[in-house]
Write a structure and sequence with these properties.
Elements lengths: L1 H55 L11 H12 L10 H37 L3 H7 L3 H20 L2 H19 L2 H9 L4 H33 L2
Helix pairs in contact: 1-2, 1-3, 1-8, 3-4, 3-5, 5-6, 5-8, 6-8, 7-8
Amino acid sequence: MDNNNNLTAERSLEIITEQIERSRKSVSEGIGMSLFISGLCIIGVAVVTSICAMLTGNMAFHLLYVLIPVLVIGIERYVNRNKPKAPVSLIGNMVDKTWQTFGIFVVIFFLLSIPFNGLMLHDAQVADNMQVYFQNRISPVRIILLMMGMAVTINGYILKSKWMVWCGIIGGIGGFFWEAFCVTETLIARSGLPLDYYGTAHIIAPNLMMAVFTFIGLTLPGWMLLKHNK
């Protein structure tokens, strides 16, 4: 009797494990497509923002990043229009909650940073000391890249994907420190280029870093997940 109970318990555990693995694989394909689409949308917006801001000198074009959720949702719905809706699962729910949390934090942080930086710029202009602005302003890019890397890494652990884990770590931490230490501007300064390039670098660098590390942290792991599940 005890042996039968043990066998039944072991079989139940095997069934549960198999269901979790099947759920993980089915979710991986959907997440891969979402990451791939999200990465391409962010890269596209970063390129458009850089071009528009550089041609006009108007930094308000950075508000185009607010359109990213709309673009991602619209393209995902179009791509998945003929596909059956996947059943809700524990794995899928964990992944969805991770990205929902990421989205809430990013949107709120981005929107709050705009008036804060505007206030810092006003105070710096009144005091005729722009160093105050550069010391106290919020740089949304580095924080958003860091949070993105954290979300991707958590998804990698949930889906048991080493590619996602490493891409999340490299994209998030790499992007944060690259932007925090102004690596791009430092490279331009040491290259001996004319001072006129500094203004252009200030406009392009954040968007360029967003595009590069988004490719590493979102597009690449998304493509790997899609390739692995084919």
